[in-house]
Every structure is written in C-alpha cells, then in structure tokens.
Amino acid sequence: MEKTNSVKLPAQTKQTQSKMEHLNFFQLMAEDIRTALERDPAARSGFEVFTVYAGVHALWAHRISHWLWKHKLYWLARANAQIARFFTGIEIHPGARIGRRLFIDHGMGVVIGETAEIADDVTLYHGVTLGGVSLEKVKRHPTIEEDVVIGAGAKVLGNITIGSHSRIGANAVVVKSVPTQSVVVGVPGQIIRRMHEVRENIPDLEHADLPDAISRYLQSINARMSSLEAKLDVHPKEKAILHQEADGTWEIDWDGDYVI
C-alpha cells in the first residue's frame, strides 16, 4: 500500500465532518438531490439530477474516496477520485473535508485540494480552484465557511478563510482571508464589506452583481475635485480624455483609433 505522511489539521476542522455523522450515505444523496433542485432553476426533476448532474456525482464519489482516505487506503482513494475526475471533469482530492449541501453547478474544471475544507451550504461554479501555495505537508488550502458562493473561474489560493455569507466574483483571485459578509472582486481580489448583514440561510446567488470599487473610488475623487474647483473658481483648460458615463461605460475623447 502507498505510504504517505498524513497532514495534521487543527481540531476545529473536524466540525465539518461531525455534522454528517448522523446521516447515512443514501440520506446524504437524497439531500444532495434536493439541494440541486433548490439552487438550479434548470433542474426539472430529481431523476434528472440523479442521472446526469456531474457535480452531484463528483460529490458522491468524493464521499467514497474520503472514507477510503480516512481508513488509510490511499491508493484506492486516489484511484476512485481519478475515475470520478474522468467522468465528471471535477477533481476533488480524497483528503478534502466537505460538509453538507454543497452544490457544484456545471462543475467542469473545478479543483479542490487535499487540505481544503468546505462547510455547509456552499455553492461553486465551473472553473473554481481551491488551491495550495506551499510544498510543505501542512494546511495549505482554503477553508470555506457556511453559505459562501464562489463564481465561475475564481481562484482561492493558500491557507486562508472565506468568511460565511460571502460572495466571490467570477474570475477573482483571492490570496488573503475574507471577513464574513463580504464581496470579493478583481485580480488580486478586492474585499468589500457589506453594509447590511445577510442573516437568511439562503445562498446569495447574485454573483454577477458585483461592485466596482476602483471605479467608484475614481468617481468619488473626480466629484470632490470638481467641487473644489467650483469653490475656488478654477476651470481646467482641458477636459479629461478618459471619463465614465452614468451607465458605467468609459468614454475616451480621442480622434484616433486605439488598440486594447
């Protein structure tokens, strides 16, 4: 049997698994099907989810792989995980700890590393990576708390924590911990705290509704400069070449063509 040095995780990481102990495998399967029906408007029936939803199949395969991993059947666990990867396009390391009601929508290209931890009621879209940034056999992958939504193509890297009720925008690259009740956008990820807390136990699936913090900051600076110029009765000789319209579109006052 393959020899490996198991990674020692903090005691609190066992909470994710303890919540699942009172449900058997088939009860968890039924719960996963209900979760897919609730979070995917394209799902038309439980039978459809049971037979053709790759994200659900990858999660079921991972539960088997994780059981083998915990019983030190490392090669069998990895082999089962690779078979699931071949059929679903989703790669979940057998050592990853995953809670209840995880929903992986579409799922193609999702990668979840060995020491990643995912709490209950998390939603992942295709292309998400929960990756590591260390070669040491330590906790090197992210911890995702309850009710987090991670948009398509987002990369969450390193031993960081994404606080509960947070939303990670599509293609964001997150390399530092995110407080609860936050929205993250951009590369590298810019963290924006919500003004009002989300208390409902409902996933925030509006992952396309993301604030543009840099743009709004520039608008604020321009507004303050205009106000200051008006008070000082100073009128600039030239208008700004680059400015933003009310609908958020950037306009360039330039006669020539340009290349992006």
Sheet with the most strands, sense and barrel status: 6 strands, mixed
Mean pLDDT across all residues, rounded?
A: 83
> Helix-strand pattern, N to C?
HHHHHEEEEEEEEEEEEEEEHEE
Q: What are the segments in which pLDDT stays under 50 over at least 5 consecutive residues?
A: 1-6, 9-14
* CATH domain class of the largest domain: Mainly Beta
Number of helical stretches of at least 4 residues: 6
Q: Kindly report the CATH topology of the largest domain.
A: UDP N-Acetylglucosamine Acyltransferase, domain 1
Rg: 23 Å
Instruction: Determine the fraction of residues in helical runs and give it as a percent range.
Output: 25-40%
Q: How many discrete structural domains?
A: 2
Q: Could you say which overall geometry the principal axes of the C-alpha atoms support?
A: elongated
Portion in beta strands:
15-25%
Tell me what the CATH architecture of the largest domain is.
3 Solenoid
How is the largest sheet built, in terms of strand order? Answer: 3-6-9-12-14-15
Cα(first) to Cα(last) distance is: 54 Å
Structural class: alpha/beta
